[in-house]
Amino acid sequence: MSSTGLADSKADNPSSSTRNGCSETPKKHEAAASGRSNESYVNGFKTDLARSLVLLRKQRGWSVYDLERRTGVSRSTLSRIERAVTEPTTTVLVKVCLAYGCPASRLVAEIESRLPRPNDSSTSAEQVTD
């Protein structure tokens, strides 16, 4: 990357090997789904989301400052999200994903597909009531 920053970034010349900017994310978790609690699933999702966002940023050769300029989200917020200290709001996640050219729904779906499902059936759609 040049000292000026963005002109030479990978995002300005995306590789054809990435599908909507999301396909190169961390590998599937090896943990077995049996006995996995909802809390464990949520923690795994949070950690995988943070890792995925760091990977997407680094694949483009961007600093957190570059991402801040592209999204309008503060560096401190972006850093806390990437360290899994806090979860992004939907709006922040969409802004970040737009900067990466990756639909937020696709990123979430990819993360969910890598995580073993929790064993607790109390969250099934059939049991949700208004």
Overall form: globular
Largest beta-sheet details? none
Number of strands: 0
Distance between the termini: 52 Å
Task: Provide the helix percentage.
Answer: 40-55%
Order of helices and strands: HHHHH
Average pLDDT, all residues: 76
Decide which structural class fits the backbone. mainly alpha
Low-confidence stretches: 1-19, 27-35, 122-130
**Radius of gyration from the alpha-carbon trace, in angstroms:** 16 Å
Strand portion: under 5%
Number of helices: 5
Describe this structure in words.
By secondary structure, the chain is mainly alpha-helical. It contains five helices and no strands. Helix 1 packs across helix 5 (104-114). The protein is globular, with a radius of gyration of 16 Å. The model is unreliable at 1-19, 27-35 and 122-130 (pLDDT under 50).
What's this entry about, in short?
By secondary structure, the protein is mainly alpha-helical.
Itemize the secondary structure elements and their pairings.
Elements: H1 38-59, H2 64-71, H3 75-82, H4 90-100, H5 104-114
